[in-house]
Amino acid sequence: MIDFALDEELALVAETAQRFSDEQLLPSQRAFEAQRALPEALRREAAQIGFDRIDWPESAGGAGLGALARVLVTERLAAGCPGAALALQPIGAVAQALRAFGGEAALQRHLQPLLARPDARAALVFDARGQWTSDGDALSGHAAWLPTDRVDLLAVLSRDGLRLVTQGIVLTEVPGAGLRAAGASELRVDRAPVEAAWTDPAAAALALAHARVQLAALLVGQMHAAADYSRRYALERVAFGKPIAHHQALAFLIVDMHSAVDAARQLLHEAAWRLDAGRPALEAAATALIEATENAVFIGANAVQILGGAGFMRDYPVEKQLRELRALGLLLGGADAARDDALPAAIAAPIDFLATTDATTQGA
Question: Quick check: 2 pLDDT over 70?
Answer without folding.
Answer: no
